[in-house]
Structure formats: structure tokens, C-alpha cells
Amino acid sequence: MQIRLNLATKALQTHRRFLVGAGGLAFVAGILFLSLGWHVYAVRKVDSEFRAETEVVRQQLIASQKERDDLERFFTQPENARLHDRAAFLNSIGDAASFNWTLMFMDLERVLPGGVRVISIEPVQLKGRILLKIKVGASSEDAKLQFIHALEQSMEFSSLELVSEHQAPAGDQTDKETMDLNVVYSRS
């Protein structure tokens, strides 16, 4: 039989708990280091892709700007400027010819109350819409207000502007007042 006898003056100390804790901590630190390293790599890769895309867009922007400058130079040449002015003139004639007077008069008749009559209409082309300069005569203040209210409520007539109001001359039996209006007509 053997008996274990420790004759040392100091008892044997084990560092096993410290070594296991330090090893576990080193393992966790290694995993954290690897994950942070992977994150930095992914961020740098995305950043380099972004810089490459930015450079491509910048090159396209420079090419587009150069093309725009070339076109502006081309269109500012005297013979091309005259051609542009002529095309704009012909387009305005086409737009004026395509204006549907019948439809406009039907819409105006729908909002025109009794006691109000149209004296004159002058259309002016404005960026795809028509500005109508209308002169109307009203037999009473109530009829005049009804007409203005009907124009304001209408979907086809917008941007109503009362230019002037005049009392009719004493010899005029039909109209007590005349008004000059500007209104934008746009039929959708």
C-alpha cells in the first residue's frame, strides 16, 4: 500500500481555473476578432464597389454634359436657331388649330347662368393650356356673382382673374354691368 505524503512546506497550488478561464476568454476574443475582421473586409469591399459605381456615374455625367454642350453649340448656330423658331411657330399654329371651340363653348354654356351673356372671347395659347380673355355683360349683380361662382367651381376653368368691371351705358337695356375676365381653360 502506498500512502501519498506531501513533505513540502507549501501546499501545491493548481492554476487550472485560471488557465481554463484564460483559454475561454482567448477563444471568445479570437471569435470576436475574426467577426470584426470579416466585417471590416465586407465594409471595404462594399465601399470599393460603391466607389467604382460612383466613378462610372461620374464618367456618364461628364459624357452627358459634353453631349449637352455639343448640342447647345449646334442649336445656337444661326441656321439652326432659325429652324427652331420656325418649328416653334408652326407648333403654335398647330396647337391653335387643334383647339376645340365647340367643346369650349359647350363647357361655357354649362356654367353660364341666365342674365349673363358673352360679349367677346379671345383665346391665347399658354404652355398647352388656353387663356381666355372673356368680356361678359350681366343684367344684375346676382347673375354676375352666379357666373363668377360657377366659373370658380368648374373643373375646366381655373385661375379666374377679374380684370375690370364697368357700369353699362345708360342706353343699354340688356346689361347693367360688363366685366373683363381672364380664365384658364384646360379640358382633361
Tell me what the structure shows.
There is one protein chain. The chain is of the alpha+beta class. It has 2 domains: 15-76; 99-185, General secretion pathway protein M, EpsM (Gyrase A, domain 2). Helix content is 55%, strand content 22%. It has 4 helices and 4 strands; from the N terminus they run αααββαββ. The protein has helices at residues 16-75, 78-97, 101-111, 141-153; strands at 116-126, 129-138, 157-167, 177-185. Strands 1-2-4-3 form a 4-stranded antiparallel β-sheet. Strand 1 and strand 2 form a beta hairpin. The protein is elongated. The mean pLDDT is 83.
The CATH topology of the largest domain corresponds to Gyrase A, domain 2
Q: Helical proportion?
A: 55-70%
Report the C-alpha radius of gyration, rounded: 43 Å
- How many strand segments? 4
| Biggest β-sheet strands, sense, barrel | 4 strands, antiparallel
Structural class designation: alpha+beta
Succession of helices and strands: HHHEEHEE
**What CATH architecture of the largest domain do you see?**
2-Layer Sandwich
Strand order within the widest beta sheet = 1-2-4-3
- Would you state the CATH class of the largest domain? Alpha Beta
Mean pLDDT: 83
Poorly predicted sequence stretches spanning 5 or more consecutive residues: none
First and last CA, distance: 113 Å
CATH superfamily of the largest domain: General secretion pathway protein M, EpsM
The dominant shape is elongated
Number of helices: 4
Percentage of residues in DSSP E strands: 15-25%
Whole-number tally of structural domains? 2
